[in-house]
Please model this.
Amino acid sequence: MESKKIKQQKKKVLLMGKSGAGKSSMRSIIFSNHVAKDVRRLGATIDVDKKRVKFLGNLLLDIWDCGGQDAFTESYLTSQKEYVFGQVGVLIYVFDVESSDFSVAEEPVPGQSDRDLRTFGKIIQALAEHSPGARIFVLIHKMDLVSTAFRAAVRDSKADAVRARSGRFSWNIGIYATSIWDESLYRAWGGIVNSLIPNLDVMEAGLKDLQKVTDADEVVLFEQNTFLTVTRVGTEVGDENPNNDRYERLSNVIKTFKSSLSGFTESNSSNQFDSFIIKTRIFNFIIQRLTYNTYVLVVFPPGEAELQCTQLNILLAKDEFAKIEKVAEAEDDYQGKG
Model:
């Protein structure tokens, strides 16, 4: 793999929505290694809670988790407008699907309103004024509370209403239906972060090289802390897998696995295993630490010799992927001194 220079990028990310919509819970699951059952202990966010997250060593996310109480929202839209909405790279807006103020009915319904949508519309206007180039993602959250038979219809009707209030951003808005209790949260955040990764083609080129030398059906790159999918390459055989959500399911399983390991190890670090191997008569499967910031998954032909060769090729690939991260980190240090 030919090494190329990857520039470090910083993105201001606004995480907004009504109080109790689940913003802080999902942030804790994705970035702080909490599991769903643990986030019930989290309290309401007061004003703006800022956290900087490094993703893959070359993407810095400045996450502004904005409290959704009415007084705070009013302040964001008035006295703090330029401060909050200036220089925003991404807005992630979270709707509580069960909120009585998230009605999309054409006729008035007793006890319901479209207040959440009107607030969203005001925030979109503020964003268009101060950060017209920002990306918009909407999460219609707590979908587990909707009966399975009605989820698709509810998701589509809510999404249509959101787009109608999105103004100039409506043509390029990403909308996901999510829940903290399944893989949908990883699908949404994986899609969001994936859209921000600089020079993704460099990483994909490295995965293609690894896929060729291991004769793998699939090779998938995961970020080590969040275990979100970065990118993947594969053959026609791998593409025929009918489980389209397998990467997000795996992210969910591995994060839960890592959380359970913390109870049996002295370290609370997210780096709690080096490799995970499954051997069958049909295929071999390995998840192995690739660099400081990544794990790689490889699905390849069965056999002990094939396993040993694949482990060796992953070891050889580590140096090339590590060069990418070192270049990005060195550039960040240089810019910091300047």
User: Anything to note?
Assistant: The mean pLDDT is 85.
